[in-house]
């Protein structure tokens, strides 16, 4: 990626009102995750999470044994949290599930709930809200580590497998970062753009014209009509006409399936989307493509698509 292109993305983020100073007192955190033990995920690589001093505003989710990857390269997924909160463990079951399928997942924030969280409420509150630059920093770090001799990730990452994702407010952060030319797909959960500001979040703007900057396939995963993001997400789907886009609805509301074991049904759809878009996996593609696709014939889900391949 050229320096000019990267600076353009960073300028865009501040231009639409996401600068750190404007958000410092604005973000509201989602409910804390339970204190249940971390789960290794259902994929072939048991997953773990960790904080890394070199990446102080993010938490890394990864296969615990990097040697077990063999010749397989890691994909990279950067994640924005619900509420744009600073708790990078608030959807940890979902993120551990992605990591167990051979993805390096980098979530903005720190471990502030569940195993590994600080006991002090004050310590948890001291960490500032996250901003889209944190997601960009995750991409920068991962690709630099892939080239750094001596890194545990040296030569283990495929730079062509980079995705942005997020939940609710974090999904809006991901929409802004999706303009980065290094990104190959966007996976947006329980979110949708809106015009103007929200009363509780001054300076927070992700207008509808942000959608024009998508340059990759996009999947929205929404919680059905009771999801507070439903109307905005469906409108986004209607407006996006220049890239392949799909919207999958599971009627569970705005909270999704994040608290379910291994992230529940939404995490499985996310894994299949990533495996198709980043790895060309034909079995994963069958979940989304064709008249009798997996989600098309699953009574629990409703899938709509535009600009998709016929088969």
Q: How is this fold's topology laid out?
A:
Blueprint: H1 3-15, H2 20-23, E1 47-51, E2 58-63, E3 74-80, H3 92-99, E4 103-108, H4 121-126, H5 132-147, E5 157-167, H6 169-177, E6 185-189, E7 218-222, H7 230-239, E8 245-249, H8 264-279, H9 282-285, E9 302-306
Parallel strand pairs: 3-4, 3-5, 5-6, 6-7, 7-8
Antiparallel strand pairs: 1-2, 2-4, 8-9
Helix pairs in contact: 3-8, 5-6
Overview of the molecule:
With 311 residues, this protein is α/β, with parallel strands linked by helices. It has a single domain (3-30, 40-306), classed as Rossmann fold. The protein has helices spanning 3-15, 20-23, 92-99, 121-126, 132-147, 169-177, 230-239, 264-279, 282-285; strands at residues 47-51, 58-63, 74-80, 103-108, 157-167, 185-189, 218-222, 245-249, 302-306. It has a nine-stranded mixed β-sheet with strand order 1-2-4-3-5-6-7-8-9, with helices on both faces. Strand 5 (157-167), helix 6 and strand 6 form a beta-alpha-beta unit. Helix 3 (92-99) packs parallel to helix 8 and helix 5 packs across helix 6. It starts with a helix and ends in a 5-residue tail after the last strand. Mean pLDDT is 88; it is low at 1-8 and 10-33.
Query: What's the helix-strand series?
Result: HHEEEHEHHEHEEHEHHE
- Tally of alpha and pi helices: 9
Total tally of structural domains: 1
Strand content: 15-25%
Shape: globular
CATH topology: Rossmann fold
Strand order of the largest sheet: 1-2-4-3-5-6-7-8-9
What's the main sheet like? 9 strands, mixed
The N- to C-terminal Cα distance equals 32 Å
CATH architecture: 3-Layer(aba) Sandwich
Q: Ranges with pLDDT <50 over ≥5 residues?
A: 1-8, 10-33
Mean pLDDT: 88
Structural category is alpha/beta
Q: In CATH, what is the class? A: Alpha Beta
- The CATH homologous superfamily corresponds to Alpha/Beta hydrolase fold, catalytic domain
* Count of DSSP strands: 9
Helix content: 25-40%
Radius of gyration: 18 Å
């Amino acid at each position: 990626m050229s320096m000019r292109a990267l600076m353009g993305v960073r300028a865009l983020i501040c231009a639409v009102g996401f600068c750190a100073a404007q958000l410092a007192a604005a973000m509201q955190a989602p409910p804390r995750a339970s204190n249940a033990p971390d789960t290794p995920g259902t994929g072939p690589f048991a997953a773990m999470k960790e904080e890394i001093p070199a990446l102080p505003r993010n938490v890394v989710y990864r296969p615990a044994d990097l040697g077990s990857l063999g010749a397989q390269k890691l994909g990279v997924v950067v994640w924005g949290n619900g509420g744009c909160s600073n708790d990078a463990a608030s959807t940890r079951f979902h993120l551990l599930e992605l990591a167990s399928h051979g993805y390096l997942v980098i979530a903005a924030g720190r471990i502030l709930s569940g195993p590994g969280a600080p006991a002090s409420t004050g310590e948890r509150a001291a960490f500032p809200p996250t901003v889209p630059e944190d997601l960009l920093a995750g991409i920068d770090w991962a690709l630099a580590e892939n080239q750094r001799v001596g890194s545990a990730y040296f030569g283990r990452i495929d730079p062509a497998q980079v995705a942005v994702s997020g939940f609710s407010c974090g999904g809006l952060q991901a929409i802004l970062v999706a303009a980065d030319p290094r990104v190959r797909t966007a996976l947006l959960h329980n979110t949708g753009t809106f015009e103007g500001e929200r009363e509780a979040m001054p300076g927070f703007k992700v207008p509808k014209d942000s959608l024009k900057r998508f340059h990759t396939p996009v999947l929205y995963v929404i919680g059905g009509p009771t999801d507070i993001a439903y109307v905005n997400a469906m409108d986004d789907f209607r407006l996006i006409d220049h890239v392949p886009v799909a919207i999958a609805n599971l009627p569970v509301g705005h909270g999704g399936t994040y608290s379910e074991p291994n992230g529940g049904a939404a995490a499985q759809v996310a894994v299949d989307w990533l495996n198709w878009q980043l790895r060309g996996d034909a079995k994963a593609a069958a979940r989304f493509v064709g008249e009798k696709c997996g989600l098309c014939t699953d009574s629990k889900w409703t899938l709509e698509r535009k600009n998709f391949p016929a088969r």
